[in-house]
Amino acid sequence: MKTRTKWCLLALGFGLGLSQYHSHTHHGGSIVHLFEWRWSDIADECERYLAPSGFHGVQISPPSEHIVVSKPHRPWWERYQPVSYNLCSRSGTEHELRDMIRRCNDVGVKIYADVVINHMCMADAGEGSRSTCGSYFNASREEFPSVPYSAADFNDDKCTSGSGNIENYQDIYQVRNCRLLGLLDLAQDKEHVRGKIVDYLNTLVDMGVAGFRVDACKHMWPADLKVLYGRLHNLNPKWFPKGSSPLIYQEVIDLGDEPIKAGEYYPLGRVTEFKYGAMLGSVFRKWNGYKLSDLRSWGEGWGLMPSDKALVFVDNHDNQRGHGAGGASILTFWEPRLYKMAVAFMLAHPYGMTRVMSSYRWDRHIVKGKDENDWVGPPSYPDGTTKPVPIGPDGGCGDGWVCEHRWPQIRNMVTFRVIVNGQPLCNWWDNGSNQIAFGRGDRGFIVINNDECFLDATLNTGLTAGTYCDVISGQKTGDRCTGKQVTVDSRGRAHFRISNMDQDPFIAIHRDSKL
Ligand code: AAO
């Protein structure tokens, strides 16, 4: 059994980079994407659950007015087809949005708005007022009077493809100046368009959002984004240190096979690292000869972007249903045992700023590898209204809401991440196969058995002597452990036995789970 070096890897420097890379008060917790949740439910969740569990913030679905699609019936993706920047959407009214932002900020949970500024709705959406605030639009004439936008505000004159749509991702001009998936492509180099986008973003900043997940950044020129971000207000001093700027993380899908690179967007803010989930899924599935012990060099050592620029996730709302990128290796709630192991690894490892997915179930109908129901929207009433999120007696969610963020193993690992924040990766151990362990300074330690055999090892934890509650099989409640417990001796060593038949074949202990 190979015992790896006991030395801490060099502390991963948290660069003094521009504040867009990490919000000033980033306490190490994780962002949770409450996908398609209503604003009033998010507000309740901030107060009753996210704040006490140590979540850093919530990514909310796009709050701007969007089209109402009837065929297919109310797909989740109608929210990625804006009709105006009015703040009424499937998740609620402007008043409900303001109230949610206030209530979450008041308990220290930050709000990151998913903003769709690359485009408006699809070119063939016709005309009318089938939109979430009832605003009139005429897509074929490229008229959105509620903004207002007119044909002059779109990129039709720049696009060089035959169809007007992106036909070739190897052509950077098409990718930026043509229509993504047939969506009317805004001209962010036009002052009028810049003004409307900046007004929209600053309205949200003034309301109290802490930053943005900027949709489809690959399809916008970095120079234009730089102008837009440069005009953003500082965060609302009611909740944030004076002079704080919004945290920005940009959606750029870069798996290495296209000319447009994530690196072009580093100077502007953080960037989504799609290689993360695609590769981590392959490792936990043991595909391509990958073994967990290969994760010793996880992070930049695997060619991932610099840690202080990365927004990382195991799955996201697109690739959990075959949209966007990531492919078959992506782990999701549909495979809970492996999913929990991968999410726990992500939350224990110091690399990147993490985002946990919180999903809803839908009736998958996979034909030739594609889910014909990949469009299905959130749990709703027959009229299309999104259902509330009921919380059951066991702390889980009902009515089709999955609430991965409420799975005890994931919740407790979010808390773990807060406790070990800033501590370097230490005391790596592996068995040369699929059993690994590592610590974070003297604050936390995790052991994972993804082999087909028993893990039985005495390891350096880096923790002080004492008895610790395992936060995966249970937790510390009062002066006892509800699950397994681990005894660390005076030299910081502990004996771990983990059966590969365990429901969750991994153990995590930390400073605050000590009896
Ligand atoms: C809907 C319908 C469409 C219809 C459209 C307009 O589904 O059929 O044409 O309306 O009528 C979401 C849904 C879309 C939906 C859209 C609007 O996913 O299905 O379209 O709302 O309602 C690209 C973008 C990326 C984008 C992704 C979906 O670069 O930014 O497509 N994600 C965001 C949001 C997403 C949203 C939008 C953008 C639009 O997260 O939810 O769409 O606001 C390659 C490229 C990627 C490209 C993908 C997919 O990926 O690299 O940049 O993503 O293709 O087009 C390997 C490669 C990888 C490649 C991948 C897939 O992994 O390594 O590079 O294969 O080919």
Automatic annotation (TrEMBL):
SMART domains: Aamy, Aamy_C. InterPro entries: A-amylase/branching_C (IPR006048), A-amylase_C (IPR031319), Alpha_amylase (IPR006046), GH (IPR017853), GH13_cat_dom (IPR006047), Glyco_hydro_b (IPR013780). Residues 29-417 form the Glycosyl hydrolase family 13 catalytic domain. Its EC number is 3.2.1.1. GO terms for biological process: carbohydrate metabolic process. Keywords: Calcium, Carbohydrate metabolism, Chloride, Disulfide bond, Glycosidase, Hydrolase, Metal-binding, Signal. Its cofactor is chloride; Ca(2+). Residues 1-19 form the signal peptide. It is an enzyme of class 3 (hydrolase). It catalyses: Endohydrolysis of (1->4)-alpha-D-glucosidic linkages in polysaccharides containing three or more (1->4)-alpha-linked D-glucose units. Residues 426-514 form the Alpha-amylase C-terminal domain. CDD domains: AmyAc_bac_euk_AmyA. It holds the Pfam family Alpha-amylase_C. GO terms for molecular function: alpha-amylase activity; metal ion binding. Belongs to the glycosyl hydrolase 13 family. This is Alpha-amylase.
